């Protein structure tokens, strides 16, 4: 493992007082250069964890927008390698145009130059008050956003790993996703796709299946198509996509665990429940002269329900003094 240091020029805001007599701060745009670190790994440190295959429009050797002309593509199963490092998955960046992809990869130099260009041209918002510009020896510097701006660039660079002359970008975990379209009975249809989940720990969609659940995904896709009457889609799902797992620890998505976490959070948020009797008893404890303001039209709610969460009580009472 090694790091590649790249000098990147960027703009930042500096705050100052024109003179010691001034109270209102001004701001100005400054330019500097920072060493941004890019992580470089070799194949042994950056193993292939999964091979993801799905049907895509593929262009041979396309690099420019005009190369993606809609005529020279081939719609076919196309396989992408996903590599694994420090608990995260990464996918090599390719030239692409929308959903269409090229067989050509973006190089590490492409990504570095892209970041240089992006932050070199990014302008800062400064105060429009230019009546008292900064004067050397007179103005007082209050602070700046130099470090914060450099950290922002470094955070962007941390999304990439350089390996084998290619730039690999952090991606979500690939899962099988069943989707339906139209009204059913072969109007629209049922499809099985691969989707990259950015937050697999908290996604409990019942139509998502992890990379090891391909058999379940195929069965459920067929069952869904049968229920909807999409007979033309039955038996077609096995050919549309596949996730081959080479590194078991890279598979983290678990629908049941995510669902259980959501249920626990809902119960936590609900808090302790109290009865209407508890509410009336609380009112009885107040001094008769105390004013309690209830939100308009909420008395009917109190009369209808037998219990509410303690948190919900706050939505009934505006203030008490």
The assigned structural class equals: alpha+beta
What low-confidence regions span 5 or more consecutive residues with pLDDT below 50? Answer: 293-321
Whole-number radius of gyration? 29 Å
Helix segment count? 7
Write down the overall mean pLDDT.
85
State the order of secondary-structure elements, H for helix, E for strand: EEEEEEEHEHEEEEEHEHEHEHEHE
Number of domains: 3
User: In percent, how helical is the residue content?
Assistant: 10-25%
Instruction: Give the N-terminus to C-terminus distance in angstroms.
Output: 64 Å
- Largest sheet, if any? 11 strands, mixed
Query: In percent terms, what proportion of residues is strand?
Result: 35-45%
What do these coordinates show?
The protein has 321 residues and is an alpha+beta fold. The protein has 3 domains: 2-39 and 110-165, no CATH class; 173-267, no CATH class; 271-320, no CATH class. 25% of the residues lie in helices and 40% in strands. It contains 7 helices and 18 strands. Strands 1, 2, 3, 4, 5, 6, 7, 8, 9, 10 and 14 form an 11-stranded mixed sheet that branches. A 3-stranded antiparallel sheet has the order 12-11-13, with helices on one face. The chain is extended and about 80 Å long. The protein starts with a strand and ends with a strand. Mean pLDDT is 85; it is low at 293-321.
């Amino acid at each position: 493992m090694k790091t590649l240091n790249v000098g990147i020029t960027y703009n930042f805001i500096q705050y100052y007082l024109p003179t010691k007599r001034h109270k209102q701060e001004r701001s100005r745009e400054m330019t500097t250069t920072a060493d941004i670190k890019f992580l470089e790994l070799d194949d042994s440190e950056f193993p292939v964890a999964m091979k993801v295959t799905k049907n895509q429009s593929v262009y041979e050797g396309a690099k420019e927008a005009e190369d993606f002309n809609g005529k020279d593509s081939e719609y076919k199963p196309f396989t992408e390698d996903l590599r694994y490092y420090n608990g995260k998955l990464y996918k090599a960046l390719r030239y692409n145009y929308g959903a269409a992809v090229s067989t050509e990869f973006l190089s590490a130099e492409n990504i570095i130059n892209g970041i240089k260009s992006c932050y070199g041209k990014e302008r800062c918002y400064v105060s429009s008050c230019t009546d008292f510009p900064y004067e050397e020896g007179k103005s007082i510097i209050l602070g700046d956003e130099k470090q914060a701006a450099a950290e922002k660039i470094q955070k962007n660079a941390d999304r990439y790993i350089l390996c084998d002359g290619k730039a690999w970008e952090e991606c979500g975990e690939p899962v099988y996703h069943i989707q339906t379209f139209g009204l059913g009975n072969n109007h629209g249809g049922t499809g099985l796709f691969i989707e990259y989940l950015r937050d697999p720990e908290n996604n409990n969609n019942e139509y998502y299946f992890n990379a090891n659940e391909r058999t379940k995904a195929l069965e459920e896709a067929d069952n869904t198509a049968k229920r909807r009457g999409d007979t033309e889609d039955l038996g077609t799902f096995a050919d549309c996509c596949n996730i081959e797992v080479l590194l078991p620890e890279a598979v983290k998505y678990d629908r049941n665990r995510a669902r259980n976490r959501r249920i626990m959070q809902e119960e936590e948020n609900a808090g302790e429940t109290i009865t209407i009797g508890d509410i009336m008893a609380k009112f009885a404890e107040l001094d008769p002269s105390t004013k309690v303001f209830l939100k308009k039209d909420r008395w009917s709610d109190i009369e209808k329900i037998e219990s509410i969460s303690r948190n919900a009580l706050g939505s009934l009472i505006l203030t008490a003094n």
